[in-house]
Amino acid sequence: MHQRRLLYRLVILAGSAGVALLGGCVKSASGQIDVPAPVRVPEHVQRGSGLFSMLAPHALVVVGRAAPAVEQKAAAQLAKALREAGGPAHNLFHAHHVNADLELAATHHLLVVGTGADNRILARVPSHWAMNRNRFYRTHKPYAPWMPAHGYYVAGYGVFPSNEAVGYVECDRNPYWAYATNLLMMRRHGPKPKLAYRQIVRLTGNSPAGVVLAVRAFLNEHLLNGVATANNTMPGAMSLWTLDTAHLALPGEAPGWIPEGTLHAGRRSLIFAGWQLADSMMYAGLREVSGQTAQKIWRAKYLTERGWNYSHHVVINPEFPMSRSPLFDASLARRAGGNEFFVAQFASTAQARLAQQAAEKSLNNRGRYSQAPWQTMVVDGVQWQQSRFDFNTTVFGKYLVMESFGKNHVSLALTAISKAMVKR
After folding, report:
1. pTM: predicted TM-score of the whole model, two decimal places
2. Each residue of 295-304: pLDDT tens digit?
3. Residues 300-332: tens digit of each pLDDT
4. How far is CA 227 from CA 76, 231, 234, 388, in A?
5. Please, which residues have CB within 8 angstroms of residue 73's CB and are 6 or more apart in sequence?
6. With 127 labelled, which of 236, 357, 372, 374 sits at a CA distance of 20 to 30 A?
7. Cα–Cα nearest to 23, from 98, 102, 112, 94
8. Cα–Cα dist 65/121, whole Å
9. What per-residue confidence (pLDDT) applies to 374?
10. Which of 182, 180, 178, 105 is nearest to 328 (CA)?
11. How far is CA 366 from CA 243, 257, 289, 323, 391, in A?
């Protein structure tokens, strides 16, 4: 818990969601979906994100039955990539069938392609972060006269005009899984089995072209959460709620020494999952903690050998106004802060060191939860500052690097990134 404290605070501050189908899927006598044995993961998947090989065996791609042709094509490409990564032969479904089958929806990862206008699932369980105002305010009134009623709004990124395609990728807990889990927990008699954790990946946007951008970003850029535009520009000025183009930290621009791929050390593994595109609220949180304004922020997310096999229980942290769940922190959700490298680029090395010192100071004045004392630790030639709770930070050139790995994986993570830094 404690070594993740700074990233948790940043995330908290940043907050101040018979089957007929396109292929056909066969159910066994027990009612479960027959999943074939995993096949070899293609080389292009091995080199980058290992997420597909972990999602694929229990993942379904869901698209609207009457979705535009470009969305249907994008969904088919995504389903093919998942099959190549070990998924079932028939993994492409129509949304209305999945929405009507709670067992099917709750026991699979759902990669949902489309918009609320053409995909029943996106209409029923929309994002809490994004809204197509043009569509919503056709049938609703704004809460106040001064509220804008046009554009595609994504909290932390901005308001995008209707005539420019924008895609949005968002990972979250599967709401059908959550509903089914609650039903099982409320049983008065009989066993209360726990369903394996399942995610939903919303691949959406303000138009069919925007949906295609979202699918491409997820497939090619390993984007887990964030927006995708055709020209990599943002629509507004930097503020608490909007991200400008200058601060848009694209995955392809990330420092090359941030580890990608899969790392192993004995029985421990770290699997690179993808990138959380830092939003304006994350920049504001870092500025409040450190007193310095970052030029760019990258968040690289990893999974462990346990995947999402973590306890559902909630850990109460009395120092913060919200509790933490080990399962949630291991998830891909936008606010989940576990198993990450947090890399902030500043204008100079001196500014990066000021940010590091201020961040450490903010963690020290916390009574019995103080991270002090800190000690210097050298890993493969890179000097790290380590707190008494094993939270680690370093300054490498003009970059401030922090981590949020647990005690079982932090050594593997630091060794991998330190070796990569030295090689650069």
Report:
1. 0.87
2. 999 999 999 9
3. 999 999 999 987 766 555 544 445 678 888 999
4. 21, 12, 9, 37
5. none
6. 236
7. 94
8. 12
9. 92
10. 178
11. 32, 33, 14, 17, 15
